[in-house]
Design a protein that fits this description.
The chain has 234 residues and is α/β, with parallel strands linked by helices. The chain has helices spanning 21-34, 41-59, 63-77, 84-98, 108-115, 129-139, 156-166, 180-189, 226-231; strands at residues 8-11, 120-126, 147-151, 173-177, 193-196, 217-219.
Length: 234
């Protein structure tokens, strides 16, 4: 009896299942306005991005690390003279970011409902545990997944471990997401299929070239096209 080529499908969360980056961009604009008297907007944005990159090792991905990076950037931009009132406002906009309602993307629920029961569905997301659990609960999508994995980072070993634990190994698994760097390239390296679903807003840190030569790489415009890709695997 021939084995099915695919038994397990992993889904990224932020900007794959629900909106996320747009709220960070809004918060960054507010942050730039707070420091407008001290530097040009481009310099503030660049300083914030550099701080985020430096701090990933310390704080990981998520809103708390982003808020700390904003404070660090404010100190650097003002050469240590940032007013305490500005620090308080940064903390306020960081808390506001944690309170944004969840807005699921088009075709998400229909796609998950069509696949559940036929495949093992796994949510694989990185970020702050508390915040990701909040967003999953508010999305109403939790019951459609067979497993939830909130990880500190995503690399090939992450996918090998998860797909071996939950499913039949990475070779019979697929990862679906909007980040080439975190969702697609490492999943392909683990031996899985990687389905890239571009989002109009993607954090600059996640930008890498599309692995178009990889035989298991696929690209779709939205999640509504995922079933067609799966059916095409045979």
């Amino acid at each position: 009896m021939t084995q099915r080529p695919l038994t397990t499908i992993g889904f990224d969360a932020d900007d794959t299942l629900w909106q996320n980056e747009q709220f960070y961009r809004l918060t960054e604009r507010q942050f730039i306005e707070l420091l407008a008297d001290y530097a040009e907007s481009e310099n503030i944005s660049q300083g914030l991005l550099e701080a985020e990159k430096r701090n990933l090792h310390h704080y990981g991905f998520g809103i708390k690390g982003f808020t700390l990076s904003m404070i660090e950037t404010a100190i650097e931009i003002t050469k240590g003279e940032v007013p305490t009132t500005v620090i308080a406002q940064i903390l306020d906009i960081g808390r506001d970011l944690l309170a944004h309602p969840v807005e699921t993307l088009p075709n998400v629920r229909q796609t998950l409902e069509a696949l559940t029961g036929s495949y093992l569905l796994v949510l694989i997301t990185k970020g702050d545990l508390f915040d990701q659990e909040r967003k999953l609960a508010q999305s109403g999508l939790g019951d459609l997944f067979d497993a939830i994995e909130i990880v500190s980072d995503k690399n090939a070993s992450t996918y090998r471990r998860i797909f071996s634990k939950v499913g039949d190994g990475p070779e019979r698994a697929m990862m679906v997401g909007n980040s080439l760097k975190s969702d697609i390239v490492p999943a392909l390296a683990a031996g899985s299929y990687g389905v890239f679903v571009p989002h109009e807003l993607t954090w600059a840190f996640e930008h890498v070239a599309e692995p178009t030569e990889a035989p298991r790489f696929r690209k779709i415009e939205h999640l509504g096209e995922l079933r067609g890709v799966i059916d095409g695997l045979g």
